Amino acid sequence: MDFKKNPDTNFKNVDSLSKEEAQQEVDALREGIEYHDYLYYVKNQPRISDSVYDKLFRRLQELEEAFPELLTDTSPTQRVGSEPVDELKKVKHAEPMLSLNSALEQSDVKDFHEFTRRNTDERNLKYVLEPKFDGFSVEVSYQEGRFQYGVTRGNGKVGEDISKNLKTIRAIPMHLKDEKKIPSFLSVRGEVFMSKKGFQQLNKERIKKGLEPFANPRNAAAGTMRQLDPKNVAGKPLDIFFYEILKVEGNGFASHVKALKQFAKWGLKTDPHLKTTTRFKDIVSYHQSLSNQRDELEYEIDGIVIKVDSFDLRRKLGVRQRSPRWAYAWKFSPKQEITVLEDIVVQIGRTGMLTPVALLQPVDVGGVTVSRASVHNEDEVKRKDVRPGDRVRIARAGDVIPEVVERVGTTGKKRKQPFSMPKKCPSCGAGIYREGAYYFCPAGLSCLPQVIGRIIHYASRDAMDITGLGKKTAQDMVRKGLVKDISELYTLSVEDLLKLDGFAKKSADQLYKAIQEMKNPPLDKFLYALGIRHVGRRVAMLLARRYDKLDNLKKAARGDLEKLEEIGPEIAESVSRFFTEEVNKKVLDRLEKSGVKVKEMPGKKGDTPLKGKTFVFTGKLQNYTREEAQKYVEELGGRASTSVSSQTDYLVAGEGHGSKMEEAKNQGVKIIDEKEFERIAKG
After folding, report:
1. N or C: which end of the chain has fewer CB within 10 A?
2. Beta strand 433-435 with 401-408: parallel, antiparallel or unpaired?
3. pLDDT at position 84, please?
4. Residues 455, 477: contact at Cβ < 8 Å?
5. In the chain, which stretches have pLDDT less than 70?
6. How far is residue 567's CA from residue 558's CA, in Å, rounded to a whole number?
7. Does 71 map to a domain?
8. Distance of alpha carbon 365 from alpha carbon 386, whole angstroms
9. Are residues 418 and 400 in the same domain?
10. Which residues pair with 343 in a beta bridge?
11. Burial code of 113-122, b = ≥16 C-beta within 10 A, e = fewer?
12. Minimal CA–CA distance to 233: which of 413, 436, 81, 405?
């Protein structure tokens, strides 16, 4: 059976095969699949169609299921089928993974050149010139040509075992080719990287899901490769270049160039930009050439590497404590301020606001790598007339938030179509609506990016106060499909919570208990926790005191809401829209079915002794924290402010009061102590 050139996919029934026949077919299938992986992922020269490849792969899976004793850990089917690990184990490198000395200035590189010539007595010393990849360095080892393990660089001496994750990268062969020259043991160094196109697509998907995008492809590759579950790595746009022998037994080499030529024969992917020279001026030309090409390359590079070719001369030059004396990195100057706008995607915030976000080729702005920037809204995008593919100038607004300042004109290049906001939410498909200059998705409680933000808000201290449910946990819950809206928080079991990153039995028990304890919230806290646009703590209190029960508020007409004091048309519209949106109604129904019973507001509707009064607190109170005192005021119909103004009715002064006392005297505000405050509050 030969599955290389013209694979025959008319397979016999598995039940009719003997074990020996199955073994022969399995061996042939694995050889054929690995060969086509090599053509596709290394040589970029596919020979068979995707459908034929899929048939071969499914047949191998079928045989391994029928004959489980034939399954091996280097089978192509095991690239994506491994179970998650509890932690990444430490592994000592076959040889230390050294770091390179580097420089930005040509004069420093010239010093390296003079040093190597002086210490080798070679006037025409041969160098190998390679790109300096901006990725994630790994060691990959083979025993008798068979993949053995893969390790992160770590501290250079000890790294973490990421073998299962590396297997998902199909450019990494499970078996070396060229059997006649396979060494008994081979350890090679490579750089895992993410293509620019794949990086942008991954960030689009993360933004669509409400997750933070990665800063640059290097961070994306590193973050992905250190996942505990290989299934989260499989399918990601990861690739690898091999560029150095760490250790070899049974098949030595005289030079670096000869080793790299053998890499290709073994099926180890190498970068095609390698050059050799004996002249310093060629090093300068190579550096300039790659610097000019870096934007057009499919992957990130941040300089060039200059290596002495001869292994004998490398041994003569030796190594420092952490870096070789026979290699040097000449880095490029960081890309400053001007970069390429790759795409404009729409990000959905917690309140449903749709915001255009510019995805950029990573660029250094004030010492910070920027890969995305704000373009505010559709009108702003049109005013600046920026489109995917344009070169743009980036600034950090307020020295924090990156912003697209302007388009930098280019000639001779056809521009892409202007950006426009989508008609439907890119995450959930709900019809969007416009309010002023901004667009919103109304599906608040079931739209995925909003769900993450709403879970975080729902669990916050001023809302449901669910201890242990923070941003990372909320993101992990949604990413792993454990929660699709806030109602599903109450259906989570301890076993579900144990699936979250970093959770053990005790922490899972604690979070489960914290969630279940929040099944009977007061109406005002529940309304605030829902994250209705424009409904903060005070508005939630006003609505709760007016309508007493959640069912009453659900039925409230927009016109009736507008009549309430401090509730204007904008708030009334937002509240009315929230409770009439079908997806929100369904989530509220599911909350009720999950056992959430919202408590009525205590007291009578008119029982608001502090109505119309504004209080400011200063100093330390005996019976309340500042936050408790402010909340007490709001519960009794008053307003709590943090600053004194002419609208302030009372300044409540505790021990160690500050400058607010003078402000109150200047404004003619009545100053009272804590006892007087309690007397007024009790009516």
Report:
1. C
2. unpaired
3. 61
4. yes
5. 80-86, 336, 366-367, 397-401, 410-412, 602-608, 683
6. 10
7. yes
8. 19
9. yes
10. 359
11. beebeeebee
12. 81
174 and 269: one domain? Answer: yes
> Could you tell me where the DSSP H helices lie in 605-673?
626-635, 660-667
Residue 652 tokens read as 């409540």
* 3-class DSSP state of 144: coil
Give residue-wise pLDDT tens across range 514-523: 999 999 999 9
**Domain of 418, in residue numbers:** 338-435
C-alpha span between 19 and 643 (Å, rounded): 83
Place of tokens 């297997």: 167
Query: Taking a C-beta distance cutoff of 8 angstroms, is the pair 224, 377 a contact?
Result: no
Residue 132 bears catalytic tag: yes
Specify the amino acid at residue 108. D
- CA-CA-CA-CA torsion sign (486, 459, 639, 605): positive
Alpha-carbon Rg for the chain, nearest whole angstrom, is 32
Nearest to 634 by CA among 664, 601, 671: 601
Q: Which residues contact 58 (CB under 8 A, 6 or more apart)?
A: none
In order, the DSSP letters of 146-202 are EEEEEEE-TTSSEEEB-HHHHHT-TTS-SB-S-GGG--SEEEEEEEEEE-HHHHHHH
- 429 and 314 share a domain? no
- Please report, as a single letter, which amino acid is at residue 446: S
Q: Which residue has the tokens 């990725």?
A: 135
Rounded distance between C-alpha atoms, residue 130 and residue 132, angstroms = 6
Residue type, 628: E
- 600 within domain boundaries: no
Close Cβ partners of 603 (under 8 Å, ≥ 6 residues apart):
none
Is 96 within the bounds of a domain?
no
The pLDDT value recorded for residue 399 is 47
CA angle 527, 528, 530 (to 5 degrees): 65
Question: Which listed residue (12, 89, 126, 132) is catalytic?
Answer: 132
**Residue 500 neighbours by CB under 8 Å, 6+ apart:** 473, 476, 477, 480, 482, 508
394 lies in the same domain as 459: no
Residues 167 and 286 in one domain: yes
Q: What pLDDT was estimated at residue 256?
A: 96
pLDDT for the residue 85? 64
> Which tokens in the block code for residue 298?
């499919």
CATH number of the domain to which 662 belongs = 3.40.50.10190
**Which amino acid appears at position 647 of this protein?**
Q
